[in-house]
Amino acid sequence: MAHLSEMLTLDRDECLRLLRTVTVGRIVYTEGALPAIQRMITSPSMAVK
Question: Is residue 22 one of the residues assigned to a domain?
Answer without folding.
Answer: yes
